[in-house]
Amino acid sequence: MNNPYIYEINTRVWLNNFTKTQTKAKITDVPISYWKSLKNLGIDYIWLMGVWKTCKTTIKKYCLTDELISEYKKALPDYTADDVIGSPYSVDKYIFDPQIGTKEDFIKFKSMINKLGIKLILDFIPNHFSAETVLLKSKPSIFLKGNNYLINKDRNTYFEAFSKGDLIFAHGRDPYFPAWSDTVQINYFDNQSREFMCNELFKISEFCDGVRCDMAMLVLNDVFEKTWYEVLLQQNYFKPENEFWELAITKVKKRNPNFVFIGEVYWDLEWKLQELGFDFTYDKKLYDRLIKSNPTKIKEHLFAKEGYQKRSLRFIENHDEKRAIKSLGVEKSKAAAVIISTIKGAKLFLDGQFEGKTAKLPLQLKREPVERTDNEIKEFYNRLLNITRNHIFKEGKWKLLKAYSINEEDETSKNILAWLWEYGNKEILVAVNYSEVKSKCIIRNEFNYDAEKIEFNDLLNLNIYVREKFDLNNYGLYIELDNYQSHIFFIKKRV
After folding, report:
1. What is the mean pLDDT of the chain?
2. Which CATH number fits domain 396-494: 3.90.105.10, 1.10.10.10, 2.60.40.1180, 3.30.1360.120?
3. Is domain 5-127+191-394 in CATH 3.40.630.30, yes or no?
4. Tens digits of per-residue pLDDT, 79-91?
5. Are 316 and 324 in contact (CB under 8 A)?
6. Which residue from 259, 405, 465, 483 could staple onto 413, CB 3.0 to 4.6 Å apart?
């Protein structure tokens, strides 16, 4: 699917919206009207984040630190310890959380949304399991083991499982940050471990249309070696010939060629993961440039090869980042939303984004603060998504345009981003002033029309501008936009 729209839902928290009695709602309790409303906005995939079984025993041990409690109170002013249910990324094993639904519930649910034209994304966390997972007893050999020397050297990274004197294992980690204390690390230099995780992914793929792979680059051979060099050297583990993702993606796609792999990827490893078979990878670089209000850098980024662009996942918020209203402000967030929604690649939206929610919720919490819907933001997204669900943004040809200065003294043209979508005889021109000042430009060499008059219908702002053929063909289209304002022009030729 070209340029799909993906909608992320924090499942355990979101289900509170559908509870009618003291019994918590399950996935099958959500009315079909809800899914139809998302389909009407152009949503192609639902990512149900956090549906797998976790270990309640980790809560008291790992989830009530002073640092985490401070985060809980900041996000949820009336927080109590009962609100903590543990991280959904600290998985016990890949079976559905019974409070969310059974295997049969999810089979039924997937069938229902597929009939509506929506596909289902679930989580795959390749790097680790819960530090209390039952697999430590049934499959201890798949995990990265430590020893007395390593644990005495670094008790933040290594731990004794079950009780003192038992086996020592490594916590999962990102090499640039402290280890995740509520997890245990898979050993990706061990063939048995790789085979086990490959089979787990294969089983997950029976229940969904794609997976979002958490921190996907951590299991790359070079990254894994760099992260765990000391312990791998001590235990005589050597770099495998193939990458895990080559094996896993090939196995799943052999059964289902349309199965979608989404990779959370950083460190300029996006293209590497795309080469290994990922359909989409996180575009954190674009996100950072949108945060910094750097239109020149954004333009440079959009000059990347088409294959890379089409397989990039664009976003302005997700569960790891601040809400867009907080990180960007209202007007800037709307401009950024126009940008990501009208360029090539997949688009990721977070539940609550369309209503202007502001609270970034720690994933260990089971409820969120009550927030009023921001009607301005809701109206904006309704209009934007109703525009961009048009097939021209899915099937059309995209072209980045140059914004020329109106004269030598005015340099504000550098603030305007512009591109053209073409599909058959239809054209849509997008222009965004991504700066804090009013900006002007001329779009030249794009209009060589035979029609006497050209109508520019601004679908976003509900304005219509009519221009003469002679002026467009000889001088170009003059654009003037206030700070962080946008045009989405449907171009109509009139005789």
Report:
1. 94
2. 2.60.40.1180
3. no
4. 999 999 999 999 9
5. yes
6. 405
